[in-house]
Amino acid sequence: MAFVWRVLRYHGVPEETVEDAVQDVFVIVHRRWKDWPEEDREARPRAWLFGIARRVASLRRRTSARHERRVRELPEPAPERPLDDRAADREALAMLDRALAALDEDTRMVFILAQLEGMTAPAIAASTGAKVNTVYWRLRTARAHVRAAMREDWSER
User: Fold this and answer.
1) Which residues contact 95 (CB under 8 A, 6 or more apart)?
2) What is the mean pLDDT of each run of 10 residues along the chain (157 residues)?
3) What residues have CB less than 8 Å from 2, skipping those under 6 apart?
4) Cα(104)–Cα(110) distance, rounded to whole angstroms?
5) The model's pTM
6) Each residue of 14-23: b (16+ CB within 10 Å) or e?
């Protein structure tokens, strides 16, 4: 086992992953044992282990390089927004939720489909079975109600 450990380290397997690589080598040895000719088992066991360990190290280096490339290609995470901004967003969402709760179901559905899902009035009409003019009327009604409710909620603060 020390021989395999040294071979892996010589071939560039990092110290923190060499233990897993040793295990990989012996899993391959176990799996391929019956394919290994009897006469070679006595004569060249170190050469066989060396070859397997070298291939495991090569595979680990390629895998590590591929992983590093993928990590470098990831976009930088967006900076965390200040707590005050996140609290204000939650507050605004709660106000919107209250305003939408006061609408009847059909009007609320038209508002959500148009404003939040980005659907057009003809598409909403086709999906709900309502007439296009009815969808436009519901959307105008919902927008006016939400605007008034949000203004009222903000003025109470």
Assistant:
1) 149, 150, 153, 154
2) 88 87 91 75 77 91 87 87 83 88 93 92 93 96 92 74
3) none
4) 10
5) 0.48
6) eeeebeebbe
